[in-house]
Amino acid sequence: IEDPYWGTNEEQAKKIAEQDFIFRRSFEWEGTSSHVDLVLNGVDTLADISLNGQRLLSTDNAFRTWRIPVKDYLNEGENLLEVKINAPHAYLKRKQEERPIGMMLGFGTAGLPHLRKPQYSFGWDWGPSLPPAGIDGDVYLEAYEARIENLTLSQEHKKDQVTLCAHVKVSGPGLLVVKATSPEGRTYTAQTEISAAHVFSQTDISLSITDPVLWWCSGMGEPALYQLDVALLKEDTVLDEISRSIGLRTIELDTGKDPYGHQFRFKINGEPIFAKGADWIPADSFIGRVTREKLESLIKAARDANMNMLRVWGGGYYESDDFYDLCDRYGILVWQDFCFACNPYPLDEAPFLENVAKEVADQVNRLQTHPSLALWCGNNEILMFDLPLPGIDRKLTKAVRQFFFVTLKEQVNALDPERPYWYGSPSGRAFSKNGNSLKEGDTHLWQVWHGLDPIEGYRKLPTRFCSEFGLESFPSMASIRDFTDAGDLSISQPDIANHQKSAGGNEKILYYNIQRYGHPADFESMVYFSQLMQADGMRYAVEYWRRNLGRCNGALYWQFNDCWPVASWASVDYAGDYKALQYHARHFFAPTAIIAETTKTGVDMWIVNDRPCKVQADLRWKCVTMKGEKLSAGTRELNLKKESVLKLQSMSFEELTGDVSQKDAVLILELSDAVSSQILSTRQLLLVKDRDAALPKPDIRCNTRMTASDDGGRYEVTLFSDTFAHIVLVRLEGLHGNFSDNFFDLAPGQEKTVDICLPEGMTKEEADEKLQIRSFVDFPLKGDAEEEKAFTRKLMKDSLPMRVMMKLSSL
Length: 811
Fold this sequence. Notes:
This protein is of the alpha+beta class and about 800 residues long. Helix content is about 20%, strand content about 35%.
C-alpha cells in the first residue's frame, strides 16, 4: 500500500483494517519433554489460534499473554501454526448494538470501550485512525519438565542493609537458587529445595544485602543496578532460569494533609522529589516498527533534558520490556497508567472484568521488578468526567467507582505491595468530588490551549501536581517534508490539515502566535514561532510550579513524543527531531536553576535547588543594551539548602537600565557552583515582550570544523554576533538531526559552539552548503492588527463551549 503517513493516504489505508489477516508459520518439531506450551503475547486483537488444523483458542485482549498446552497437538516433524486476526469492526458494531456506550471525547470509533485494544489506534487528537492487525510480541514454544512461572520482589530497607525477598512461582521438583550481584561484583546467594508436591506454588527466598548501593532517579544520584539470577536445578542440569536487572530503592506517594489541602509528592529512598518530565504515547502507530535503538534515543533525550519521570498514558500500550529496562538504566521513573482512557467501560459485566483481571495480573507480574516503575495509575481522564455528557450511560458511574477505587486497587496492592496505586489521572482522594482539584491529587490543566487562556493563566492554577498541560506546535520543516512535497504550504493545505488531528488545532497555534509574537507572514515562520510559543508556555508553567516547591511537586507536560509526523503537543517529533521545547526543557528542568520574570516595575528572581544536598553557588548578572553596552552588573554568593527555593531581592528597571529604554536591554544571568565553577544555570531575559523589544538585525558569523569522535565525524559550528541575537535556530536544510543546543539567545560578543553529528558519509563541505543560521527577526510577521483582532474574535466565539468546559473542569 502507499505510505499511510504520506499526504492524505491515511483515508485509503483505513480500509485495510476492515480486512481479516492470516499469519502462518511452518516449523519442525521433535522432543520428549513432559510439557510443551505455545506462548503468544501482543496478539492484536481478535484472533483464532490453530495448530495443525486444530483450533486452540480465540483471543480478545491485546494486553494479555496467552499460554496454551500443545503437546497433544504437535506432530513429530512438520507442523503448521496459524493465527487468524479478525477485523474488529463487526465485533464493535455488534457489542455497541447490544449495549451502547457513549464516547466522552469523541475519539476513536463507536463501541471501542468493549474491546481491549489500544484506543489510540482508532485515532486521537494527535494520531491517525490506522488500527493495526497482527502480532507485535513474541510467539514461541516452551518445552519443560519444570519451570519458573513468575518472579516478583519485595525489599525491606534498614540502615546499611536491605533484605531482598524473591517471590518465585515455580513447579518442582528441584533446587531453587537465587543470586544477586552488586554493581561492584559482590555476590549474595540463597537456595531451597522444591518438593514434587509444589506445583506452581510460591516460594519465598530472602537475601541480606549489606552496604547496599541504592538506585536513584536522574538528578538525585546514580541508577545503580544489581543483577538477579534465579535458577531451578536438578542435579547439575538447569531446568529453568530467569535473570533481571533490579534496583534497591524505596518509592512512596505522600498524600498526607498539609496547610494547602493534601500533598501529592513522590519520595525515593525517603527523599522528596519534584517530578519533572512528560507524558509518553506509543512511539509509532505501527508499534512493530519501534526498535530498542529508537526507544533508547528517546529515553536518553528525556534524561538529557533533566527529566526524571515519564507517564505512560493509558490510551496506548503497556510498553515493551526494552522501554522499562532503558528507564531503569537512565534513571527515569515511570508513572504507569492502566490501559483505560477517556471513556466509560463495561465494568459491571462479569466477562469483561474477568478478562481485565487477567490482563492486570499479566502486566503487574511482568513489570514489578523494574526499579523505574514508580506508580500504578487506574486510568486516564475517566474520573474527572462525572458530568451529564450526551450518550454517557450513568448506570456505569457506580461500576467505575467500584472498579478504580476498590477492585483494581485491591488486586494491584495484592500483586505489588511495593508500589503506590492511584485511582486515575487526574484524581483526588475521593470519587468525582475532586477529580481535578488544585488542593489535592494530580491535575490535567487545559485552560491554556483548549480554553484559550493566555499562558499567564498558569499562575492562577497552584496545582499540587500537574500530570498534563500543553501547547501544540508544528514539527520541524524536515519532518513536514517527510509527509508532503506540496509547494505552497499553509495551515489549510490538505496535507498539512490532515496531519493536524486536534479540532481547530492549527487555528489555535496561530492564535497563540498572534498573542505572543504576531501573525507569521509565511508557513515556515509559523513553524518557527509555534515552537517558540510552545517552549515559552511550558517554561512559564514549570517555573511557576517549581518556585512553589512543597505546594506543587510535579510537572509532566503533554506530551513527550509522537506516533507519526503531525502537529502536536510533543517536544520530540516523530522523526526524532527536537523542537524548541526539548532544548529549553534542559534549562527549566535543571536541578539547580535560575527562575526570572519581569513584573510591572522590574525583575523577580528565584533559585530552585532540587538536589538532595546543599549547594554553594555564585550568581553573576549584567544588564546590557542590544549592542552589548553594559548598563549594570553584580554578583552574589548563595548558600542553597537541599530541595529548596530561594527568593532573591527584586531588581527595579531603574536599577537595571537607568535612563535606557527597557526595549533596548537584556538581562544576562549565570549561576555557577562556587566549588567546581561548573555552570549550573543560565538565563537571558528580555525586559519587555518579544514583539515589543527593539531587536536588531544581527550579523551572526560562524566558523565550522570537523572533529573525530568515538561515534563518527562531528561537525562543530562556532557562532558569534556583535549584537544581541534572539532565539537563534541552527539547521542543516532538509536533514534531520539534533544538536548540542538550539533555539538559544546569543549575547553580544558571546561565542557559542554547537556540536552536530552528521549523517554517515557527509563531508564538511556538504554540511557547510546546507548550514542555515537564523534568528527571531529573520522570520517575518504580517503586522496587520485589524486582521489579527478579527481572527481572534471569531476563534473566541467558535470555542465558547470548550472554554466553558475547561473553566468547569478545575472548579
